[in-house]
Amino acid sequence: MSRYTMPTDESPSGRSERAILELLSDDGPMTRSQLAERLAAHPVTIDRRCRDLQRAGRVRRCPGGAFAIDDSGDDARATGD
Known about the structure:
By secondary structure, this protein is mainly α.
């Protein structure tokens, strides 16, 4: 049985970044290896996406190398500052 997915305008990198954000939001901090395993992706790809998300202020690097949602700017984003 083949799996059909609906076409989307979102780029593959956008989908993987969204998936990373959803996992971190639901399950808390995770390492690159944990994210790669959960998303069935190569660790280098996960590292690249997480660096992009870090630059965008969406995730932060925790002690021990894990990534987590960066909620330090939530107040500023909510007020538009």
